[in-house]
């Protein structure tokens, strides 16, 4: 089995992005441990650009033919690790991306469906994180910036060209040293442990739990 | 022009629901002022039940043939009035509804599309609230409880049976006296003023602003 | 009876400060209503400077010989109007003040007591705000910036030179249009109504309620 | 050198209290590592009772004659580990303690000073936590419940009977599995690591850093 795990480069004036810092750490630890999960792990850093991010992702999928793709991004202000449940066909950028583009009310894919559900076992993943004492919950919005753009693009790829591919998106909190001192944060090491558990959960089960992970609003 | 505005009954152990308190106040103030907006306003309280809420909504739409429907619900913990942009075809109840039902991972409408966008001019509404010094932003998730259920059901009605109907959902914060003292809240009077402005904005314009109201996550 | 009510000028890069905007509105409304409370109201804008703020305050107290002094400042991120209970003899500035000074671990008054309690009926004030449907709670820290500096200086003045003077500090949330869109906020008009109620409560009673307004942490 | 480190028993309906869970883990890890810091570590669980908590603390101090005392308590809703800077001479209990007592507006020590500053190097501690990628900040209020009661009582003991004793209080966030799913939390293991670093920092230095750790409000 082959797993592609991506993080993002920094954006919005920050010097680091904990999504990529954590993804890189996952790869280091997995290699150092001798790939104990039995799957091949490919990691990559995506540009925080509406234009190029999906080009890079498509090339990763084409090159590696992964069984599972997990894209990871930063969600500043969230208190835990949050697997996303739904991607929306909407770009609405509050700030310019790293290439200076700021699309407003444009679909990710012209003519695509309004939304896709991700296909990771998000409830089983959250349960695994809770058992490991890591704050986590299912999220029902990935926003309307590059993260949602990549998530929608990934699920559209799976829906149209790679039907065997299971994929999803995970948002992670700030890291402590990142300069957002009033906001919640998690050590990068904890976030990396969470991502490893999400991959492990995904490769070892194909169905999700039938428990509630709903949001009242 | 005819407008239907709904709020919800209390749920989750609360004694009041600011959505209905505010909707009722909107109706009182509009009637007392002699219906100055030139539209007919019908208000109703929806049951906080997956089963009956859409029955009641459908009957309201069938009876009154409204041009605009705005459903309002409480979003405890939010800091402002938040018009919703997207409804998802998913019921996942964290707690039982007022009839004791707790659907998990069930579609609102079997075979319906994954999501609908609302058709209110949400950005123009938020701008009108900001001009009135009321905290507001566009939201991209209405959750997976009865609020999202009603929103999705409303947009499905519009898509399948009432093509002229414009509709949407607005989440409102707690009220100060409601017993959630650590959470953000708004006076019911302020929330009512916000809803009046949302209706006024909706009936006086048919297109939305082309400004960003996006979320980074 | 004479009441001095102060707000602060903007600081930290903001273009406005809701504390002064609300104080000014209180004065306008009180004058327009013909001073219905029977007290004389003097308002002033304090500089957001460690050095000059207490000079200005001392001159206000010397000139007007007020019975009550209420100083008001902005507490960005708070969800309601928060009368402060305790002032601490500590300046520790996270950012420079408007004069460029940034004292670190310096007492407000060399040799002064570690802290003073304010002498407003803070619990009765919070109850009055709750009855008016305005979010409010008692706070037990005014921070270590210019707000706490002024609060401590005021209580030290009362303790050492003006024993008849009753005084205190009230922190207020951001206003909606201020540029902190993810933070809680209150309309300036609501904040002004709150300040009017706090003055009214203070001038019409001399003892506080015996109810809890405590914080678990 | 001898260090006393205390946590609290659960309160407010919770089944666990991460302060004690983390303190116990610190002791286990320190013993398992062969007491590498060269100090003797004594840990104890304090009752969450206004009446008995200080009796137990006084007995611990009398029995063990510690050089350093660090009391730890839970601060539900905080996003990081927060060494406290100031204890206030005020009990104002929002809820009854575990013995059913609910003091309102009573001093911790009749006739004591309004407040004490703690004597841990709180800024150096926070810096050590940041270097370890753990979210942390200095807090300027320990509330008015049993935590502040114990903190004030400890500093009063030091001021009146044990002048060599250095002491302070540290508030810690919820743990992930504790049942407050919408609130920030930290793994107990991370909190334990933080407490170990706070003890290490305190026993290896006697003066604090001269850097700002101030709060704007």
From TrEMBL, chains A, B, C, D:
Q: What biological process terms from GO does the record include?
A: proteolysis
Q: Where in the cell is it found?
A: Cytoplasm
Q: Keywords of this protein's UniProt record, alphabetized? A: Cytoplasm, Hydrolase, Protease, Thiol protease
Q: What is its EC number?
A: 3.4.19.3
Note the superkingdom of the native organism: Bacteria
Q: Which InterPro entries does this one have? A: Peptidase_C15, Peptidase_C15-like, Peptidase_C15-like_sf, PGP-I_bact-type, PGPEP1_Cys_AS, PGPEP1_Glu_AS
Which cellular component terms (GO) are annotated to the entry? cytosol
Active site, renumbered: 84, 147, 171
Q: Name one GO molecular function term.
A: pyroglutamyl-peptidase activity
On whether Acyltransferase is a keyword of this UniProt record, the answer is: no
| Reactions performed catalytically | Release of an N-terminal pyroglutamyl group from a polypeptide, the second amino acid generally not being Pro
Q: Fetch the HAMAP family from UniProt.
A: Pyrrolid_peptidase
Spell out the subunit comment.
Homotetramer.
* UniProt-listed PANTHER family: PROTEASE FAMILY C15 PYROGLUTAMYL-PEPTIDASE I-RELATED, PYROGLUTAMYL-PEPTIDASE I
Checking NCBIfam families in the record gives: PRK13197.1, pyro_pdase
Write out the function statement from the record: Removes 5-oxoproline from various penultimate amino acid residues except L-proline.
Q: What family does the Swiss-Prot or TrEMBL record give for this protein?
A: Belongs to the peptidase C15 family.
Q: What is this protein called?
A: Pyrrolidone-carboxylate peptidase
User: Species name for this entry?
Assistant: Saccharothrix espanaensis (strain ATCC 51144 / DSM 44229 / JCM 9112 / NBRC 15066 / NRRL 15764)
């Amino acid at each position: 089995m082959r797993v592609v795990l991506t993080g993002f480069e920094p954006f919005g004036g920050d010097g680091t992005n904990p999504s990529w810092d954590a993804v890189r750490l996952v790869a280091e630890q997995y290699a150092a441990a001798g790939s104990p999960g039995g799957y091949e792990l490919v990691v990559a850093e995506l540009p925080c650009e509406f234009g190029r991010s999906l080009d890079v992702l498509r090339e990763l999928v084409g090159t590696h033919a992964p069984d599972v793709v997990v894209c990871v991004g930063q969600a500043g202000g969230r208190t835990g690790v949050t697997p996303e449940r739904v991607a929306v066909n909407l770009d609405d950028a509050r700030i310019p991306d790293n290439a200076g583009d700021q699309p407003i009310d444009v679909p990710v894919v012209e003519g695509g469906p309004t939304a896709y559900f991700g296909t990771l076992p998000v409830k089983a993943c959250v349960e695994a994180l809770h058992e490991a004492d890591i704050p986590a919950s299912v999220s029902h919005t990935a926003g309307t910036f590059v993260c949602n753009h990549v998530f929608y693009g990934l699920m559209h790829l799976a829906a149209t060209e790679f039907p065997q591919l299971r994929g999803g998106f995970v948002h992670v909190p700030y890291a402590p040293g990142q300069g957002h001192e009033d906001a919640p944060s998690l050590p990068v090491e904890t976030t990396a442990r969470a991502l490893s558990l999400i991959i492990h959960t995904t490769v070892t089960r194909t169905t999700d739990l039938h428990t509630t992970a709903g949001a009242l609003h």
